[in-house]
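for the writeup, i need someone to sanity check this before i put it in the appendix. the sequnce is what the collaborator sent (i think, or maybe the updated version? ugh). structure was predicted straight from it, no edits. if anything looks off just tell me and ill rerun, i have time this weekend
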Amino acid sequence: MQTKLNIFPTEQEVLQHIANYFTEIASQAVKENGMFNVSLSGGSSPKKLYEMLASSDYKEKIAWDKIYFFFGDERYVPADDPDSNFLMAKKALFDPLQIHSSQIIPVNTTLSPEQAAEAYASAVYTHFKPYNAKFDLVLLGLGDNAHTASLFPHTTILHEEESSVKAVWLEDQQVYRISMTAAMINAAHHIAFLVYGAGKAEAVHQVLEENENIEQYPAQLIKTENGDLQWFLDETAASKLAEKH
């Protein structure tokens, strides 16, 4: 299926449109299946989205008690560490909306990296019975090195074809990450990249317009055959694209 680009003049407009998209997908999933399964992204860009969703403009539009929250990746740090994706989402989204803990499926970073990844894959597959992990929506960001989730350049997870969760060792940072594989992300009904700011312009161009080179531009792995793949960009992030359609 073709990738759809949504380009808006300002960061605020990008956030409003992806918040509307989130609301629409959530409402549709709840209506059809009685629940909405979403995989969240970490980082500063989605934090602003979560704060917007928790605001008075949006909180009444969504059946929050019907949503199950997962994480596309997690830093291998304690749950109360400032770098934790879970902690960021907890402060920006879960606590303000009083989301019940039973609806939140975090990565257990008290385990070893490999055990944490294995346990998270098991949690995902237990939720999606029997063995069909297909999220309604996966939210993704994009790093300035063209990574997404914790699919970093020149890491072994880039060649993992199984729909699963893996531990990722980042040699340059000397840290572990826990990440869904591209196959698990790509199975989703809807995938949305949220990217804004001039600092991301080169990475956006590389992922969308350079020849395929997943070792260098891992976010090129994200593609969908039967689902919906959309990018929400501001004009500065899209400024190096030759074609803005």
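The longest strand covers residues 228-234. The chain has one domain: 12-229.
thx in advance!!
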